[in-house]
Write a structure and sequence with these properties.
Keywords: Cell outer membrane, Membrane, Signal. The chain is mainly α. It contains 21 helices and ten strands. The protein has a domain at about 290-400. Residues about 5-15 and about 20-35 have low confidence and may be disordered.
Length: about 525
């Protein structure tokens, strides 16, 4: 199998970053002057320059700070998982008692703006370059996509519709403004409007995924832009319910884009869902946007979720363990449960051996199984698994948005408009081996979204926030299965509280604190109550 990875050599990354990055972290919003011997005067000349600039857009995608662990620390607040290991700043976040100085949370906000800066440089310079027009269109489309995609994450994580407002909107027009001059929009809906504008521009410029050769897989494409427009409208509808209709429109645009989007469904639910979460299917019809990964680099989430120390065979990190609440959410006969979660006694393949799951480390008695396929074979290390356990990537592209989520976005948007969402919802249920639902309710949708997307970047925590369910859900403790002998997969267990009930204030905790370093450098206001 050919893995297509957009790799930047150290020389390429250094040269490009001289043009695309700032002089110091204190000027993270606006100091865009080039440094060193490379400058805007001698860089933006050739097709190679433009391609290097577009490649730089993806560098942070593979960084630990964003889609390795970064944003997952926030997703960890949900009722689906517990931290797994004692870590004060992460535990404080899960308990909603942060102060903005937590080390694990300082980089996501700034790194998203770093990508936005790089996109703005491309949008400012590439239009005037004398290069192939098709290449120019693609690179501009990539820049619009990555600017919108990065803004999407900071907008819904840190912005709201009035209490705090949105987050700074940085475009070509204002990217050179003085650092302290940026302001927060009155509402995050202004961010959503800019994100949609960027993603629409991207969709107009980008090719469909199926036209890419192996060397370019991993680049932004039309379906990714259309799908994130749909998801942005879904989030926007939290404040303006007319946006549900727009969400449906763009879900249909993904389906009808010409790229052949469809669920992986051969009427073998257990195998379909298992292979779906593996490198064997990562470029298939269901994967819309993911973190391009390999045994050499990419998202470390696969190893982060592995048993701490990997039963003595690999340096798993032991974070993000499923709760009993998530396990019990699955219906009997749902093929997704065994693929998603390992419980004591479950068989799995691990470096050429058949093992039965047990853990002397898991706080919950469970482990996420979705990301373990590449650990199966005896020769996996160096082939499908990174040789460096301190960078535990695998050949599997960690998913950020799948076609199944597009279907569930459509179902939710239809139901919230008082229409029938059965058709898209039941496509997802059928793949899981479950009977269809008639006249599905919003509660049916909430259930389906939870079990289909568990342990993924789909963001269960923000779902609970935008649905208005977080305060009630988080007022309940979380449970695990505590076995009498953690070394014995057949030992009896009792259901016990592993995380106490939490106080979630919907007027404060619906957004996260902006890192204090960013507040100080940009002059914007901190989110209230943090």
């Amino acid at each position: 199998m050919i893995k297509s990875i957009i790799k930047l050599t150290k020389t390429t990354l250094l040269a490009t970053s001289m043009v695309l990055t700032v002089n110091s972290c204190s000027d993270e919003f606006t100091n865009l002057e080039p440094i060193g011997g490379v400058s805007t005067g001698n860089f933006w000349k050739s097709e190679a320059d433009a391609i290097q600039a577009s490649n730089s857009l993806y560098h942070e995608m593979q960084a630990q700070n964003l889609f390795g662990r970064g944003f997952f620390w926030y997703l960890n607040a949900s009722d689906d998982m517990v931290t797994g290991r004692i870590r004060a700043d992460v535990d404080n976040a899960k308990n909603f008692i942060m102060n903005g100085d937590e080390g694990s949370y300082k980089n996501m906000y700034a790194d998203c703006y770093k990508v936005i800066r790089r996109a703005n440089f491309i949008l400012a310079n590439v239009p005037n370059m004398d290069i192939n027009e098709d290449l120019k269109s693609r690179i501009l489309g990539e820049a619009y996509f990555m600017r919108g995609f990065s803004a999407f994450w900071v907008a819904h994580m840190y912005g709201d519709n009035g209490t705090n407002g949105g987050v700074p909107i940085v475009t070509v027009e204002n990217m050179n403004a003085p650092a302290g001059s940026f302001e927060r929009p009155a509402s995050v809906t202004e961010n959503y409007a800019q994100i949609v504008e960027d993603l629409k521009a991207a969709a107009d410029l980008l090719p469909i995924f199926t036209t890419y050769g192996d060397a370019d897989k991993g680049r932004a494409h039309k379906d990714a832009a259309l799908a994130y427009i749909a998801k942005t409208y879904l989030y926007w509808a939290q404040y303006d319910n007319t946006k549900y209709a727009d969400a449906v429109t763009y879900c249909d645009a993904v389906t009808n884009s010409g790229s052949g989007r469809a669920l992986i469904d051969t009427d073998n639910p257990a195998e379909d869902y298992r292979l779906l979460h593996s490198a064997l299917k990562e470029w298939d019809t269901e994967y819309i946007w993911s973190v391009n990964s390999s045994a050499d680099g990419g998202s470390i989430l696969t190893g982060v979720m592995l048993e701490n120390k990997g039963w003595g065979s690999y340096n798993g990190w032991g974070y993000f363990q499923p709760t009993e609440e998530l396990y019990n959410e699955y219906e009997d006969g749902d093929a997704r449960r065994a693929v998603t979660i390992l419980k004591f006694g479950d068989e799995f393949q691990y470096f050429g051996e058949t093992r039965r799951y047990q853990s002397e480390n898991s706080l919950s008695g469970f482990q996420f199984n979705k990301y373990m396929y590449e650990f199966r074979d005896a020769g996996a290390i160096g082939t499908t698994v990174n040789t460096n356990g301190d960078n535990p990537t695998t050949a599997y592209n960690v998913p950020l948005l799948r076609y199944a989520e597009v279907l569930l976005i459509k179902a939710e948007a239809l139901i919230m408009q008082g229409q029938n969402g059965d058709a898209p919802l039941n496509l997802v249920r059928n793949r899981a081996g479950l009977a269809p639902i008639s006249n599905a309710t919003i509660n049916d949708l909430k259930h389906e979204r939870r079990v289909e997307l568990a342990g993924e970047f789909a963001n269960r925590h923000f779902d609970l926030v935008r649905w208005g369910d977080a305060q009630t859900v988080y007022a309940q403790p979380l449970h695990g299965r505590i076995h009498t002998d953690r070394a014995n997969p057949d030992s009896p267990y009792s259901s016990e509280i592993i995380w106490p009930a939490r106080n979630f204030d919907p007027n404060v905790n619906h957004v996260w604190p902006i890192p204090n370093t960013a507040v100080e450098s940009s002059g914007i206001s901190q989110n209230k109550g943090w």
